[in-house]
Amino acid sequence: MIEVIYKSLSTWLTDLANSLISLLKILVQSSFRLRLPARQKAVCSVLGNGPSLNTSLEKDLEFILQTEIVCVNNFAHSPYFLQLKPQDYVIADPNYFVFTEQTTDRDDIRQTLGVFLASVDWPMYLYVPRFAKGSYIMNTIEARNPNIKPVYFNYTVIKGFRWFRFRLYKAGLGIGQSQTVIVSALFLMLSRQFDTIYLFGADQSWHEQIRIDEQNQLLMQQMHFYDKPKDVAYVPVYADKHRTKTHSMADQFLSLHKAFRGYEVLREYADYLGVRLLNASSKSYIDALERVQLKKSNAAS
Predict the structure, then answer these.
(1) Total domain count for the chain?
(2) pLDDT band at 297 (very low <50, low <70, confident <90, very high)
(3) Which CATH number goes with the domain that contains 272?
(4) pTM for this model (two decimals)
(5) Strand runs (DSSP E) across the chain, as ranges?
(6) 259 close to 183: Cβ distance less than 8 angstroms
(7) Which residues constitute the domain of residue 105?
């Protein structure tokens, strides 16, 4: 009995402390003037860049085209980008917003920017964290392609009491911890209150691509649906910007824990909003979301 009381009190005090800290973070980091655009359809599809998306795009393309489409990070590298013409695009990788014309080691970012400038001839919302405002990427896009409308969101991580977090998420003052861009995109789309959100291409199978070499360096193969496996090498996952030491296995699995915990919070937030959040990925290690297989009879509103 005493142990139960102790755990309950400890949890309450932790939530109280996290709520107060989150309030301070909001006052310092968040803008109260940012708003998300209204949804364009009742159903949306969030497309992750996992290898399984190839299967989904072959099998479920007709269904996806009926929904409001959300792509992330380097999806523009795929020929499907011009076919789908997504209404929404989310970029959360901080490396995008320190990129400049002189940057030489991020050809992937340069390629995405090139596609945005040369090929996006339809209206598209580009969701980026508030701190991206004024970056080279955003200044270039705003100056050279009026079809792309920036939507800045508060990337303030909110923790604390459940009721407290959910109200602030809904108000757009912050989001839950987002180890991946998919989690960020789902938080944003939930706050836009679609009736149903389908998730595709969320393999989340990083542990299958982890290796340790003879020097105990942690290596990883970062596979995306638009990559050719033979072209993707195992590379060190460095823990510091000077690239002197890789992450430990313990650090890497802690990061994976945070990623999967993010999906549990998303499920709770979806239930709070009354939004159906469904995982339609053909391969996925996410156990927090209801799995579905689409049939020809499925139709988007």
Answers:
(1) 1
(2) very low
(3) 3.90.1480
(4) 0.92
(5) 43-47, 68-72, 88-90, 124-129, 148-153, 196-200, 210-212, 218-220, 235-236, 276-279, 290-291
(6) yes
(7) 2-207+246-291
